[in-house]
Amino acid sequence: MVGDPIADYLPTFIRFLLLAAVVVGASTGLHYVLRNIFHLRREIAIGYSLITPWILGFLIFSLGPIIATFVLSFTDYNLQQTPKFIDIKNYDTLINKDVNFWPAIKLTILYSIISVPISVFVSLMLALILSKKLRFIGVYRVLYYLPSIVPAVAVVLLWRWIFNPDVGLLNIALSPIFSLLGQTPPDWFGDESWVLPAFIIMSLWTALGNNTVILLGSRKGVAADLYEAASIDGATTFDKFRKITLPMMTPAIFFLVVVEFASAMQLFTPAAFARATPAAGRFMNLLIYTYGFQQSRMGYATALAVILFLLILAATIVLFRSQTRWVYYEGQEK
Amino acid sequence: MSTTVTRTSASPTRVPWTPPRIRQAIGKAVTYLFVSALGVLFLVPLFWLVSSSLKEGNHIFDQPVEWFPASPQWKNYPDAWNALPFTRFLLNTLFVTLVPLLAEVFASAIVAYGFARFAFPGRNILFMVMISTMFLPDAVKLIPTFLIWKQFDLIDHYDPLVLGSLFGGTPLFIFLMRQFFSSVPKEIEEAALIDGANVFQTFTRVMIPLIRPALLSVSIIGFQGHWNDFLSPLIYLNSQAKYTMTVGMFFFTGGTNERPHWEWLMAMSTVMIVPILILFIFFQRYFIEGLTSGGVKG
């Protein structure tokens, strides 16, 4: 055995148990304080003490780091010296001088706004097809879901082969079409203008199964009596789809779009290992990693993280605002 | 032919082949063809992954593609496993997967129970805050979180990968379990309380068994997440002996003076997929339940 596993695991495990005791202690302590000092009702005291672990986690691992990110983004910090306040210089350098900045923004945004609608639309079609009474539906579901369980690292390497210009599966399959058009097949990750399509195709393969399963669940959740009522009223199949199926599925579609968009903007593992030509730009999250962890420019990297955060926040707000126009929630008049 | 069919009067095959019915049959055939073709398309890369893991390294990219290697190189598996300390990597991966999983499931159940069943001031606002953290990009937390662990001198220890789980894991877990707790009728708990059980007993003896499907869903999603995680071990672990399988595997992509060992990489990828695949096939329902409950009431 390489190294000493027990010596590596045991200290962590002891700290794990100690921290568990601290969390339980904080929780019961809070209960005692609320009951005996503030004389709150039993139900209220128990409620607060039960959610204590989350409150602590939120303060330490969400709120704290977010505030810290904003503060650090105004500093020069290389992990060795104490952070030095430099005003908005990081942002100024990023936006006006950094040659990597705009290509990264462009690539990340284009990738997100193209791949997410395609992926959600195709998943929706697939879910509708699969929701018909097909035989062996379980088999299809497993087939489509399979790519989602492959470790991302393996997925990228798999696709690096598929996209290989000379021996890759995709170009072998596409070569008849391209030779018919009198063109050579693309170099995908090696060609600036094909990097984006390559990433989109790869993301479709990985995300489609997952999204289809979610939408299929939502499709199955539509109550059958709605269709019966519509049939009695003489609705056609298309009417039923437009007026019942689609509206009832909008909450799931909305959920998917929001979650998928946020994760597309933060693409990391595929971006890091596709070895795509740098001429096409790098994904923002990869750039954050490069600046922060490879070049130890923590302040500069956090400024980029803040910009990424604001972009995702803006997109999420726009999406939530648009909700009233197209998302239908049951039990809500509109 | 017609005699045997007409005898079973309830059988749908008795319906005459009218134009709409023919159209329906064609539609169905097209549907099957389409979903099967797409299924094959999804399977091909994975099939190549497994078949490449059984080829000699310099024959992986041979054309035409040899889908079933004539002489399967089973030795790729032990070779890859021993080329780097994969037994150790497996233990490491299990440690950083199972310990946090246990804590996450338990802690998120407790928090979810609090949100589902106890009316306290600010409950809805806190719940909304919790949900909104689901949409918070990790990138914005990454560097300060790294600095927290560095402050405690715990870089290159497993603590950053393990300790955070004590606070309930991802918001999705809490959300999912709360949905399940909310669907349990209140009378069941009241009966337990009348029988003299305290909150802790009610929770462990009555509520936990009732939400077993949610516990399974969360466990499976959590297992998959930790098992396949790449970024966190990459950032926090420095010494090779401490690596997890995903990070170890990556060394097969080749270094400055070594050729990439694709066949080994494919072999180890296959090894990593197997446990998740088994979990998925046996607990398909819980995988799907976990995924869909997030989508139904977003």
Give a written overview of the molecule.
The complex is a heterodimer of chains A (334) and B (298). Chain A has 334 residues and is mainly alpha-helical. Chain A has 13 helices and two strands; from the N terminus they run ααββααααααααααα. A two-stranded antiparallel ribbon of chain A has the order 1-2. The longest helix of chain A has 32 residues. The model of chain A has no long low-confidence stretch (mean pLDDT 87). With 298 residues, chain B is mainly alpha-helical. In chain B, 68% of the residues lie in helices and 0% in strands. The longest helix of chain B is centred in the N-terminal third of the chain and has 34 residues. Chain B is flat. At the A-B interface, helix 1, helix 2, helix 4, helix 5 and helix 6 of A face helix 2, helix 4, helix 5, helix 6 and helix 11 of B.
Shape of chain A: globular
Q: Beta-strand level of the residues of chain B, as a percent range?
A: under 5%
What is the end-to-end distance of chain A? 65 Å
The percent range for helix content of chain B is 55-70%
Instruction: Note the overall shape of chain B.
Output: flat
Oligomer: heterodimer
- Write down how many β-strands of chain A occur, each being a DSSP E stretch of 2 or more residues: 2
Please give the largest β-sheet of chain B.
none
Order of helices and strands of chain A: HHEEHHHHHHHHHHH
Are there runs of chain A of 5+ residues with pLDDT below 50, and where? Answer: none
Arithmetic mean pLDDT of chain A: 87
Q: Structural class of chain B, please? A: mainly alpha
Gyration radius over CA of chain B: 26 Å
